[in-house]
Amino acid sequence: MRYHRWVLIAICAAAFSVLCVVSPVQANEGNMQATVGKPATIAISGASAHLPVDGSARIVVTVNAYEPSKTGPVATVVSVRCSEGLREIGRFGIFPNEAFSVPGGAKPQRFGFLLPDEPACRQPQTIEISLEPQTGDGAGASITIGGASIE
């Protein structure tokens, strides 16, 4: 059976639309945003690669957007899962405390954290990003992570 060119184009367009709807990348994008009380778990790219045994590996977190709270500043807490549970490896704040977004023309911000020098923490697959109010309740604050990698 011969298909006309427009039928083939319609089939390809429909298949592409279905792939866009069920794409795991798009499904994960919503999980890349953390708010106060709702942490985000981010997969680490390069997590399966061999890490240096001297403890010099670090996780680099890329921030693509930030919305500050109107009630006061928030700190971003970065944790890895070790055998005993979550372990905080660092904190950072966005300065100046102003909204930005990469799609809006801003440059992404990157923050690096050394991994704990313990065998149970050397091969993390995910990190957890949470927001913790410094003053006020942190209402309205959110941070969108562009990715995390081991370097």
Structural classification = alpha+beta
How many DSSP-defined strands? 9
Distance between the termini: 54 Å
Helix content: 10-25%
- Secondary-structure element order, as H and E? HHEEEEEEEEE
Could you characterize what this model shows?
This protein has 151 residues and is an alpha+beta fold. 16% of the residues lie in helices and 40% in strands. The chain has helices at 5-22, 24-29, and strands at 33-35, 40-45, 58-67, 74-82, 85-92, 100-101, 109-114, 126-133, 142-150. Strands 1, 2, 3, 4, 5, 6, 7, 8 and 9 form a 9-stranded mixed sheet that branches. Strand 4 and strand 5 (85-92) form a beta hairpin. The N and C termini lie far apart (54 Å). Residues 16-29 have low confidence and may be disordered.
Please give the structural blueprint.
Elements: H1 5-22, H2 24-29, E1 33-35, E2 40-45, E3 58-67, E4 74-82, E5 85-92, E6 100-101, E7 109-114, E8 126-133, E9 142-150
Parallel strand pairs: 2-9
Antiparallel strand pairs: 1-9, 2-8, 3-6, 3-7, 3-9, 4-5, 4-8
